[in-house]
Amino acid sequence: xxxxPHDLPSPSAASTxxxxxxxxxxxxxxxxxxxxxxxxxxxxxxxxxxxxxxxxYVDPVPITQRVVEGLYNGISTSExxxxxxxxxxxxxxxxxxxxxxAARIAV
Length: 107
Prior knowledge:
Elements: H1 13-16, E1 26-28, E2 34-36, H2 39-49, H3 60-69, E3 75-76, H4 77-91, H5 97-106
Parallel strand pairs: 1-3
Antiparallel strand pairs: 1-2
Helix pairs in contact: 2-3, 3-4, 4-5
């Protein structure tokens, strides 16, 4: 028998190409307060640290996208920095400026 529309899985974010809508995630700041994770805040922090690096290779937005993939609710800001630094270190295969950025994030 043919499947009814109720038997079919609903379109997922992966099948539509749209980002997955999920509950807000929070980061734990150094003072212990919880703050909602904001893509733009992470991007801006990375953008500031990219000063003087080759922008043809080192773009804050794709870096932030990779970092966000590894986030989980309740991550601390220091763990977030470590994740960002490790992400950049891994990307240093593409261009040496990623190593510089990784070091800047880690400090």
